[in-house]
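Practice problem: Putative cellobiose ABC transporter solute-binding protein
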Amino acid sequence: MRITRTGGGRGRRAAAVTTTVLTASALLLTGCSSDDSDSSDSNGNITLKLADFGQFGYKEAKLFDEYHKLHPNITVKEETSTKEEDYYPKLLQQLNAGSGLGDVTGIEVGRTKEVVTTQADKFVDLSKTINVADWVDWKEKQVTTDDGKVIGAGTDIGPMSLCYRRDLFEKAGLPTDREDVTKAVAGGWEDYIKLGEKFKKKAPDKTYFMDSASAMYNAVVSSSPEQYYSSDGKPIYKDSASVKKGWNLAVEATDKGLSQGLAQFDDPWTAALRKGSIATVACPAWMAGQISVNSGDDFKGKWDIARAPGDAAANWGGSFLAVPKAGKHVKEAQELVKWLTAPEQQAKVFKAIGVFPSNTKAYDLPDVKNAKLPYFNNAPIGEIYAEEAKVIPAAVLGPKDGVIKDTISRQINNMAQRGTKPDKAWSDAVDTIDKAIG
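Answer key — structure tokens:
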């Protein structure tokens, strides 16, 4: 499970979706580890090692079994790290050593700029293997070098929505229909806070409008092309308009007592979902799985999904599959990446665990186009996320995006949890970030 993901803050568990009648089952992560045995034999049978982190959904969608049927001489073994922040340093060590690497490796979006800038020569150029035009246009640009090499194939993206508890909204006298909720926050995250103030006036005892002001902050920043770095690679987080807006809104939400002040994916956060104390969550596509798993059967049908506040589309999260040049089976690994990221396979993963495809040709396939999420009152997530994905702006990425985002988020949480004053929280964030980025 992607409990913490640098550069995306992403925690992933599975949320089953449907195009007809669907159970509300949620799948938990099961990781596989590979051994150090020879990856080929004298009969031409080979084993491809796919190293990744959290939950990419391939095992849950039974894609490795399907690939073996199509290629009887190839077995795919997945080696999964629970946390991305443990996985990435190990990947860098393996790249520098030129050994121990998977034939295919996962890369988190928050790492792409650093990998493209410092490690691109150690990965195969996939520009002739995949058709980059099939992806949302900003996705493959994130892993394209200045000289046109493409070092990764996009897996999923995180188009934004708003997950909310219908029953808590009703008790607080707020609209419950998803279209009405969308209208209530149509003016942007400022309207979201106004809605929170209305909620607070009649909120059920021991409930909070939002789980985390830091999550709202990330959603705000994710809707802007310019976030932490300028297009010429300079860190601008201190003067970034999106950072200022997100920070000010987070301070306002905290001051008004709208946030429970929880760090997403930590134990108190999962406990709050289980107890039912959270009314809304800023909801990139992959978040629905976290909510359904941690809230449990007691809240099935009580959650719903509306469109994100405002008219600025946002993306939060996403990953890639890459092929290291030092892998044992480079040719076969490229074919596996091409197949796993094709629209048909991305649609199957979406159906299995609810993460949204980055390959646009998947959007018209029935498993995506007609998808509904029973746990969330049959919200038409295929429609909601596809429309959002098509208009998400291309964001400027920097080498330390993840460090900056995580540091600021931590200080926002400190304002709620420890009572840290906004000026002190910002000063602490700046000191930490400047030391990290040099």
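Discussion: Residues 46-155+318-362 form a domain with the D-Maltodextrin-Binding Protein; domain 2 fold (CATH 3.40.190.10). Students who identified this feature from the tokens alone can consider the problem solved.
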